[in-house]
Amino acid sequence: MASTTAHSAGAADRAGNARLGGTLYRGDPGMWSWVAHRITGVLVFFFLFVHVLDTALVRVSPNAYDVVIETYKHPVMVLFELGLVGAVLYHALNGIRVMLVDFWSKGTKYQKPMLWTILAIWLVVMIPGSYYLLVKGFADLFGGS
Amino acid sequence: MSVTDAPFSVDKPRSPQRPAARRSNFELYSWLFMRLSGLLLVFLVLGHLLIMLFLDDGVQRINFAFVAGRWASPFWQFWDLTMLWLAGLHGGNGLRTVINDYARKDQTRFWLKMLLYVSMIVTIAVGTFVLFTFDPNIGN
Ligand code: HEM
To answer: Could you tell me if A19 and A26 are in contact, meaning their C-beta atoms sit under 8 angstroms apart?
Structure first.
């Protein structure tokens, strides 16, 4: 990548690092924060679709609902719950950051520290959250009940 | 327009003769809606996840009787109805942007959006119907 030909700017671009004094968006943490926001948003939308339909079974019969909801109670499903909580929490925190960038006069200046802040908050919530759910999952799986 | 009517030059895009009425602010309102609904969803969705997955015994306590108990209260009915509509419209509108970004052919874009709109209408309509017609004694 150390070439000094006319192609070097394009190469740095494709190599994905923020050269040119941090003016390149491509490959910058800011780009990845957007990619993650998009992926989590789409995944949560798909789950919303499934979740409205499974809940709609309360309108069919108590038994139909209880039988289907039982699948969510398998201990292994704590992993799914963790994935959902992690995705929604990231999307929510980053959504707040996007709004601050849009509406707060200093938002663009602090967009990067705000990214590290929301990631820290995410970890602070997810570490005890994961611990709690995983312990519960293991207890259900091996404790027998 | 026949060939002989063709003007010598084309108007500049922003020239005042161009009818302004053809422009729509839909995308501006959609942009604003994403932010306003997002702000409300922070409380609605994170609150919902906290209650359903972490408080008491999490999902283990959820069954028909639990739902009946919650929907006996207008507060939770209103919470769930607002969350359903906001999440459906916010997520659906977000997915519309994603489809606009990645679909390469007009046909693909059209059909993906039709699929999206149908699934949005189904989710929001079914959810609303269930919330308004829920019957705790349906099993008897
Ligand atoms: C929990 C609170 C939430 C907040 C604060 C939030 C915030 C936002 C914001 C501000 C945007 C616009 C981003 C932009 O214009 O660049 C957005 C996009 C999006 N949101 Fe949410 N959202 C939340 C919940 C949800 C939920 C529950 C869903 C799914 C049902 C969802 C799905 C999406 C999708 C698919 C996009 C489009 C992503 C894109 O265009 O890249 N969001 N969200």
So the answer is: no
